[in-house]
Specification:
Layout lengths: L3 E5 L4 H10 L6 E5 L4 H7 L5 E4 L2 E3 L6 H8 L1
Parallel strand pairs: 1-2
Antiparallel strand pairs: 1-3, 3-4
């Protein structure tokens, strides 16, 4: 099974959309708030939500059902 990490931040409507989307797949997700880590905040400030599946990162522009289906199945 793939390791799935969701990088989010507070008050992020797109993050909520991705949370809802990923529930359609049978995967465990580790959610990390980028605001708790200065390095993550610097790296992902304008990119959240970011979904990391194994070693591949998808930013908010590339996360959709079909991309998740391809990477998670």
């Amino acid at each position: 099974m793939s390791e799935v990490i969701l990088y989010t931040r507070n008050k992020c409507p797109l993050c909520e959309e991705v949370r809802n989307l990923i529930t359609l797949f049978n995967v465990d997700v580790i959610e990390i708030d980028i605001e708790t880590d200065p390095v993550l905040l610097e790296n992902y400030m304008f990119e959240v939500p970011v979904l990391k599946i194994d070693n591949y990162e998808l930013d908010y522009r590339s996360i959709d059902y079909f991309e998740l289906e391809k990477r998670l199945q």
